[in-house]
From TrEMBL:
Homodimer. Residues 31-385 form the Orn/DAP/Arg decarboxylase 2 C-terminal domain. The keyword Transmembrane does not apply. Pyridoxal 5'-phosphate binds at residues 245, 287-290, 387. Belongs to the Orn/Lys/Arg decarboxylase class-II family. LysA subfamily. The gene is lysA. Substrate binds at residues 290, 327, 331, 359, 387. InterPro entries: Ala_racemase/Decarboxylase_C, DAP_deCOOHase_LysA, De-COase2_C, De-COase2_CS, De-COase2_N, Orn/DAP/Arg_de-COase, PLP-binding_barrel. PANTHER family: DIAMINOPIMELATE DECARBOXYLASE (PTHR43727), GROUP IV DECARBOXYLASE (PTHR43727:SF2). The keyword Amino-acid biosynthesis applies. This is Diaminopimelate decarboxylase. It comes from Paenisporosarcina antarctica. The modification N6-(pyridoxal phosphate)lysine is found at residue 63. Its cofactor is pyridoxal 5'-phosphate.
Length: 438
């Protein structure tokens, strides 16, 4: 992947630096992001729209990996930003993100979060439900501020990898149903509001999607609704946001398309539907998360204990686990790995990679063929850049790992490793004077 290679010592290099050196310098577990790859992916999305001459915003879905440095990188690449909580918004603002390019998502935004968004004058709020419409009407009127919104709709398509299912009505906690009148009711409720400017519609149909058909179908369904609103009310949608979900290659079994192909096909199908009806081409917005940062991230671990269950399994244990990567335990997600200091050794042994958490299910990879390992070896697990650190926890009071960026032989820390002191920082003792304190 990306700028990974093997040096003359048979060691894995990432962005021009030996993984073993990085592990020694920063400790393990360590998240390493190859920023050249993030930029390459970002540019592929952005430039495909530019080449097609289509107005667009590529918004980084920052739930995949959120940090000040990542936000600064995304801003430099000209990306817009999708945030889903006051915490992500706070981080983005602290990073100096251009507020007009921030879009705020979520199915249960609090008044405090909406006030924060309005006070920060962010670019757009993606409105999810009727409660939120009432909140926004009340808050914008009180504050006398305008806000751009999209209405999030559920088109009844659920896509995952190669398959998608379409249903008249999706059983989803997100958005206004497109087919049972909810979307129309939401539209009626906001279209003439004096403080709320409706820009258009949003949908997100799933994650880790490998083909373009589901996106085309979603676009088609939304455009039918856009045409309907134009006919009935003369309203023209200026933005059509088709969400994220573009797949990446975790293991050899995964066969995703290039960013360019997803975007080109999306543009084609929208132009086709719109062109037939003489509707002005809306801006197209997308929200890739995983496909911008997923395969740019690698986790380095130190191998410790081993256990053989004769005839069944060779366990090797690493110094992290489900606390820094919940995805195998939560979604049966598959990963590929290599022993970073033994890249030229033959793979002779089948291992199951276990974590150090007190749970039998804490396994990062089941049955992978690797060179024979010993304590102290460095294990690199690939493609951990999306929903790894961002879903990390302090389970078993394990400190969260450090995160570094590498590029062209340079490396820098972007999130420090947690310390034991950090772990107890918010704890309140039963001894002392803190009774009733908040
Ligand atoms: N836009 C919306 C409204 C979303 O809900 C999501 C992801 C995205 C964009 C970005 O999707 P992506 O391009 O990253 O697939 N934790 C799970 C993934 C949850 C995705 C939630 N929404 C995992 O680790 O696979």
């Amino acid at each position: 992947y990306g700028t990974q290679s093997v040096d003359e010592h048979g060691q894995l290099t990432i962005g021009g630096t030996s993984a073993v050196t990085l592990a020694k310098t920063y400790g393990t577990p360590l998240f390493v992001y190859d920023t050249a790859l993030i930029k390459e992916r970002a540019r592929a999305f952005v430039q495909t729209f530019e080449r097609a001459g289509v107005q667009a915003q590529v918004a980084y879905a920052s739930k995949a990996f959120s940090s000040i440095a990542m936000y600064q990188l995304a801003a430099d690449e000209g990306l817009s930003l999708d945030v889903v909580s006051g915490g992500e918004l706070f981080t983005a603002i602290r990073a100096g993100y251009p507020v007009e390019r921030i879009h705020f998502h979520g199915n249960n935004k609090s008044d405090e979060e909406l006030i924060f968004a309005l006070d920060s004058a962010i670019g757009c709020i993606v409105v999810d439900n009727f409660h939120e419409i009432e909140q926004l009407k009340r808050l914008t009127k009180y504050k006398k501020v305008n806000i751009n919104i999209l209405l999030r709709v559920t088109p009844g398509i659920e896509a995952h990898t190669h398959d998608y299912i379409t249903t008249g009505q999706a059983d989803s906690k997100f958005g206004f149903d497109l087919h049972n009148g909810q979307a129309d009711q939401a539209f009626q409720s906001v279209k003439d509001d004096s403080y709320i400017s409706l820009l258009g519609m949003h949908c997100h149909i799933g994650s880790q999607i490998f083909d373009t058909a589901a996106f085309s179908l979603a676009a088609k369904k939304l455009i039918v609704k856009m045409l309907d609103w134009k006919t009935k009310s003369g309203f023209i949608c200026s933005v059509l946001n088709l969400g994220g979900g573009f797949g990446i290659r975790y293991t050899e079994e995964d066969k995703p398309l290039k960013p360019e192909i997803y975007v080109e096909d999306m543009i084609k199908s929208i132009q086709l539907e719109i062109g037939q009806e003489n509707y002005p081409m809306p801006e197209i917005w997308i929200e890739p998360g995983r496909s911008l940062v997923g395969d740019a991230g690698i986790t380095l671990y130190k191998i410790g204990s081993q256990k053989e269950v004769p005839g069944l399994t060779n366990y090797l244990a690493v110094d992290g686990g489900m606390s820094d990567n919940i995805r195998p335990a939560l979604y049966q997600a598959k990963y590929d790995a290599a022993v970073a200091n033994k890249m030229n050794f033959d793979s002779t042994t089948t291992y199951t990679v276990a974590g150090k958490c007190c749970e039998s299910g804490d396994k990062l990879i089941e049955k992978i063929s690797l060179p024979k390992v010993e304590a102290g070896d460095t294990l690199a697990i690939f493609c951990t850049g999306a929903y790894g650190y961002s879903m990390a926890s302090n389970y078993n009071r394990l400190p969260r790992p450090a995160v570094i960026f590498v590029e062209q032989g340079q490396h820098r820390i972007v999130i420090k490793r947690e310390t034991y002191e950090d772990l107890v920082r918010l704890d309140c003792s039963l001894q002392g004077e803190n009774m009733g304190m908040q």
